Amino acid sequence: MSTPPDQPARPLGHPHGEEPRVPRSLRTAAAYSWRIIAVGVVVRVAFSVLGQFHRIAVPVFLGLVFTAVLRPVAGLLARRMPRSLAVAVALIGGMILVLGALTLVGKAAAGQRSGLEKEFVAGIDRIERQLEGPPFRLPPSAFNDLQSRLGDLLSSHRSTLISTALSGASRLLEVLTVLALALFCTVFFTYSGDRQWQWLCDQLPGEARGRVTIAGRAAWRTFTGYTYGILLVAATNAILVGGALFALGVPLAVPLALLEFLAAFVPLIGSPIALAIAAVIALASKGPFIALLVVALVVVIGQIEGHLLHPLVMSWAVRLHPVVVALAVVGGAVAAGVIGAVVAVPLVAVVWSVYQALRGGTGRAE
User: Fold this and answer.
1) DSSP line for 110-123
2) What is the mean pLDDT of residues 84-106?
3) b/e string for 45-59 if b means 16 or more Cβ within 10 A?
4) Which pTM value belongs to this model?
5) Where are the domains of the chain?
């Protein structure tokens, strides 16, 4: 059927001559965009609140971590003794284990102190001689100037160093306070955490109790799975690093292994930073060749952690893509420093598992 000559042609696909509408893909992208922005604002506000109340948030988080580790042990002991006694035995046993490990590290560091100082002096002299030779050919006066400048810097900033040391003492008191409060929370979480959660659910309206119960179970299952997983990853990394450094003859192998264990709680970036410190110690004490081997160790352990340990272990809780983990760590570090970097990944994992559980899924990412 032809269009009359006195009537303008209508655009194809747009009846009655209407203007083209917004494409469906653009409307979908806009809808998701404002949702993402809203989630980002909520996360930012949450981290800001946690930053303001970190002296409370950190002990509670540590208390949950300690509870995830000690609760199964207390449950096994409670089969043969009263619950309160089982919690006390589990908590005291854990404290003895941690203090024993720290004592072992301190003795190892103190025993190697004198020999380490000599190795560092000899290592620095060896590095200076290598830099004075080909291909660098640096003049000896450069090192003399560097030493004098370091001396002047230390003398000119002596008051700053003293105030930093004093602030470090106050930081130590703050850390001890946080640990004491974390242990206090651990006792009650381990002894009656399920009853406390049930009491909280009973205070809610009847129609919300079911969903909150499902969300709480999914959150705790994911948090405990992540805690066990990160402990296994950290222990594996510490054993690999400690064994390799001991085989290479790098001093302070045991303290560096402990540093690696603690650094593994910051995924992706913690282990490389700890091994970089080990590489510097190896360079000063054993020379460039051993330092290069330690750098190679950084690459190998990074590949093992990223492609074997995390995919296998973290699948127990929630599978998070490495990009999500990286963004969570960086975002947490920007929002709340080191504490945010440690808390970000389990927080994202818990939120995702709760979302999946409330959708009627299994609480796991596919």
Assistant:
1) HHTHHHHHHHHHHH
2) 88
3) eebeebeeebeebbb
4) 0.71
5) 49-140+169-203, 215-366
